[in-house]
Amino acid sequence: MTNSPETNLSAAEPRPRRGAAQEGPSNLRSPLARVLGQGSAKEGVHHWWVQRLTSVALVPLTVWFVVSVLSLPALDHATVTAWIGQIWTAVFLILLVLTAAWHSQLGVRVVVEDYVHGGGMKTLVLALVTFFHVVVAVAGVLAILKVALGGAG
Amino acid sequence: MTERPLSPHITVYRMYRYTLLTSILNRATGLVLSAGLILLVYWLVAIASGASAYRGAQAVLSLGVLKAVYVILLATFSYHLLAGIRHLIWDTGHGLERTQSKRSAALLGVAAILLFMGLAWWALHAAGSAP
Question: N or C: which end of chain B has fewer CB within 10 A?
């Protein structure tokens, strides 16, 4: 690094520099806020982007699911296991459960962030929301796999 | 914890604004659909648990209370799907002018009701929904 006037900060009181890219606007946040994982620490846009990505995926997946279930000739065990036993049904069902659980987690998280106040309570509820969605997703996927692999006879 | 005013400031909004109604409805329907996801996974787990376990679950799933829940889920799905598509169109930068947004809100309401009625009619006449 050259010792240009721009980078030379030998003065006793370093003045705030413009264009310090590695710092960014998030240097206004306290280290504690970052550690607690509240709000954006440079990845705030990630939530927004994944919410959009899952939205786009859920349009065809949910429409497919509603149409497929309403098209089933019956809802008895033999019919639904035969349906889930079809490879593409299982594939789309797994994608639906995973994407819906992810999308739901992101959505419920925002509601909790807006309406549950108090640092400890908010963190606790957010953790529970995340755990719950993981349980729902894993249970759903495992159930689909079990039926699809012929274990639900 | 200091008692700072926290967003969203529900008490300061004018509650009759269509923007507020469509936004809150999208959130509320999303929460209802999250509950619907639990129902879906319960159904899938019941299927995976075998024929006799499934018959027990079917007795639960065909309760009158849950039929009302299915109606609500179809309605919330209809709204949340179309409202979500409206949001995705906004994300491309289109339809953000006030007149356009007002028009798309009205269109959303009408389309959601029509989609719900269509789905409800189909569900009533679907072979699989006969108990």
Answer: C
Min distance A19 CA to chain B CA atoms (Å) = 29
CA count, 13 A, side-chain hemisphere, A32: 1
Angle at B122 between CA B55 and CA A143, to 5 degrees: 35
Task: Give percent helix, percent strand, percent coil of chain B, each to the nearest 5.
Answer: 80, 0, 20
A interface test, pick of B34, B76, B77 with most A CB neighbours within 10 Å: B34
pLDDT tens track for B8-53:
666 666 666 788 889 999 999 999 999 999 999 999 999 999 999 9
Q: Which residues of B lie closer than 8 Å to A, measured between beta carbons?
A: 1, 6-8, 27, 30-31, 33-34, 37-38, 40-41, 44-45, 47-51, 54-55, 58, 77, 81, 84-85, 87-88, 91, 119, 122-123, 126-130
Residue pLDDT, tens place only, B45-58? 999 999 999 999 99
Structural domains in chain A (count)? 1
Contact A101, B37 (CB under 8 A): yes
Interface predicted TM-score (ipTM) over 0.95: no
Give the number of A-B residue pairs with CB atoms closer than 8 Å. 104
Token pair 């799933």: residue: B61
Residue A15 within a domain:
no
Q: Show Cβ contacts of residue A70 under 8 Å, excluding neighbours closer than 6 positions.
A: B119, B122, B123, B126, B128, B129
Domains of chain B: 18-125 (1.20.1300.10)
Cα–Cα distances in angstroms (integers) from residue B70 to residues A19, A20, A148, in the given order = 55, 55, 25
CATH number, domain containing residue A132: 1.20.1300.10
Give CA–CA dist B103/A36, Å, rounded: 42
